[in-house]
Amino acid sequence: MQTTADAPLPESTDNATATRMLPGVRALAPDCDGLVLDQWGVLHDGRQALPGALDCLARLRAAGKHIVIVSNSGRSGAVNAALMERFGVTAHDYDALVTAGDAAREALLARDDDFHRALGRRAYVLARDEDHGIAETFGLETVDTIDAADLVLVLSWTPGHRTVGDYESMLRDALARRLPMVCGNPDVTTPSGDHLVEAVGAIAKRYESMGGAVRFHGKPYPGIYAMGLAALASRGVDARRVVAVGDSIAHDVVGARGAGLRSALVAGGIHRDALGITPGELPGAARWARFAREAEALPDYVVATFAW
User: Taking the model in full, what pTM does it have?
Assistant: First the structure.
């Protein structure tokens, strides 16, 4: 399975008026047999299920839709499944869950491309304390200092508790040693309650801007979509009848386009300030036109929230 971080497609030239504004997911359902769903900002905000999300999942399942959750979390699908149980999202609500961490693990175990094949085995891991043991499942040995490392592995942090600035010294040391970095969570912001905070992927973006070599896994890169579509194909779903739903243009919409999928943007997610709305609202035509002129790609549909 290909899990390397190929370049996303170039910017879209779509006309903003080609995007359909929908009153809810119910209007989208006849157009698809399967959905690739984002997690944060669509199903929950990291603290609780978002309004209408659980009901929407139940209605989609009752309508016979197959659902794969594709998340940029650096944690495994199994860990994320347990997290979502706390928010009321159960294994009955979806068919499979794959994460950026899963995609990074597969790439590091397979080492079937030049970048991963050249990596050593000793990793300096940026992750929550409870996630440090994950590196062992990647075929890596965790080390405590940059000087002892062959690579830096970026997986997770607690949103709102850290900033990129906290890691500047470490990044300079890693760059001085020309250490490659593998990022298993490319999100640079994430919802935390009713506002957005820096996400751990911002560290990898900063390292890349400094001249460091970084390989990203997760959305918008093709490997994670290949995993999600394989899960849907195993259930008889044709990719032409799949819609990807997420709240990020750069990750969900660009990623869907690169995978050859139609996409639906949840307007009340990370772009709500740029769209001048509060969750539950759709953007007006003029505001959407201004937003669309700057967007990397445009979705096929927009819904206010992931609600029926």
Answer: 0.86
